[in-house]
Amino acid sequence: MIKKAVALLGLTTLLVGCVTINIYFPEAAAERAADRVIRDIWGDQPEQREAPPAEPQSLAPHSRPLAGRVLDLFIAPAHANADINVSSPAIERLKASMRSRHSELEPHYASGAIGQTRDGLIAVRDANAIPLRDRQAVNRLVSEENSDRNALYREIAAVNGRPEWEANIRSTFARQWVENLRSGWYYQDNSGQWQQK
Amino acid sequence: MRPTPFSLALLLSGLLLTAPLAAPKSAPLSLLVELELDLRGATPQWAVTAQGRGVDLAALDGLLGGLIEGGQVSGRLDLDLWLTGRGEQLAEAAAQMRWREGAFSDAAGLHAGEGLAGALTATLRQHADGLAGTLQATLDEGALYSDPIYLEPSAETPLALSLTGEQRGETLRLERIDYRHGTALHLSGSATIGPGAALQTAALTLHPGPAAPLYQHYLQPWLAGTALQALELEGAVAAQVTLANNALRTASVTLDDLWLADRDGRFSLGGADGTLRYQQDGTAQSALRWQEATVWSLPLAAAELQVAQQGTLLTVATPLRLPLLDGALQIETLRFGLDAEGQHHAAFAGHLEPISMARFSEALGWPIMSGELGGVVPGIELRDGRIALAGALLVQLFDGELVAHNLSLEQPFGPVPRLRGDLRLVNADLALLTRQLAFGHIEGRLDGHIEDLELVDWRPVRFNARLATREAGRRRISQRAVDNLASLGGGPSGVVSRGFLGLFETFPYRRIGLSCRLEHGICQMEGVAPAGEGYYIVQGGLLPRIDVIGHNRRVDWETLVARLATITRAQEAVIR
Asked: How far apart are alpha carbons B79 and B130 in whole angstroms?
């Protein structure tokens, strides 16, 4: 359906000539992508691996009529933007780093010492819940996690060729971290107040 | 348990009144208080001594209505208090305390202690305009956390604070501040604190001491998440700062044979000496020498920097030559800092004295290449953690030239450094290249470009590359190179060597070329010309004519790299 619409749009473009196509931030796709990344890091559910993108899309441009070929050029980028790509060597590296850190952070999420902030990061919300000798180490974990999360948002925007999407991706992630939160863990609501899930 | 009432005994001798006041031992506050009152003068003089052993601090805290708002204090306190006064005025006071099993915490848990033991001695004296006093406090047991610093004082490394000061009106002058952390750190100085706890002036000296504990206990916690978060340190550091009106006025840091290395191996500095100075609204001269340094794995030889500070701008004295491998970075201009609008500003001009590519590629762990790296760098732009190079870097490579334009590096020491640039290769000698890469043997000259190159974490994620031979000069390709090109394109290997064509050692060719547009991990491949449904990678020349035709236009990049690695590895094993 969408493809048809885009194709129609492409055709219209061909006919009309100079028409700007605005591609808006694909919110639903970004949510799905964020969920995949979060589950991969938090290991909630069985890993949902992405289908490997390597297989050629059986494009045989030579055998198609000219109009079809030109149309393909329009469809290809638009189609690519309907999905959010979250696989790149850098993203894999960031995910691996966050995954290994998660086992250290998890008890502090559970104790309520650390919560998810409304800007897609984490913060210490109750230092008293952390044994004194661990407080410094937990601070370090929080800084490192936030540095990885910031890099992740920037990287996903970059991989999709849309650096200006970084803020959208961050706010999508901010919502999805909370969405995937286990019960008892804390998060900040829109007014910055801590809430328990 | 209800405390038994206090007992009170009065002793009258002349007009001197002595009143020992004792609470029973079982009460939470077991204090022995003695009051002495001299009513002989116009204004009565008095003296109070109080002694307590094992006083429950939590109960005392409750009695005093909470020493820390929203927090708590506990422990056992042995205390001796002595106060004298005249009328309503305190004349002199002295206190001695010993704290055991001590604990405290503020409401947020950002400042807290556990299992603390220590001692405190304080004196206080009235003078004409206010009070003067001294304080000595030590902690020699337990754990102390003051966000984000965590310390574990012990008998071997006690924490000791000593203060001498006086109060006049609303101003508190600390004439002497002295803080020691065992033998690891010694800080001393003075300060003036005005109304509203505003820091009016301060002068602090960090006495020369080992850099490692200073970093571990006091600096590292602030550096989490930065490039300096995991350093190995040796050597000594000293520092001096002065502050005025809550702002840094002057600062100097002296390094004495400092050795510093990033645990992730990104940079190191060895045998560093010198003094770095800063002056608010002024000019200051700094000097820094080092015996050796590395950036990534590139070694920089010994060098000396002279840096002039002017406001928020730092200018490095030039010309400066930084030896790098067998070449050097020659700097004509280097200036950086914040401009008047508070924006990052950097100016750089210099050039690279040729470095041999063999040494350069070896240092970075790349396949060994021949040629030289050099170039003129007319400018550098620094913004939001991004370094951009104006001008071109020139690499004399394989008897040709590789020119790098539009180079920029983002977050060089962040979790995912990103390098961008455009490369152009002109007239490289394929014979040299194939020999160096152990790829078989090809004779010819190669041109090409890699545009929109983007390396993330030093691995390519995007580029648009095209390499092709010139249709001129002697052009021959060995059967092994043909095999390798074929298997690079995904074809079977060893086709040529096994068949009839295996009789020929080399073949003439018309042109060889390959292009790859890398995006999302997929390399979109093309050759020098279309060949039916496929494309020519090698287009043969005279007889015996050989063509290599690619059919796979979309190749997984990782697979391609793996294939290339297999080929060069296999070739290295061949004894020539």
From this structure: 25
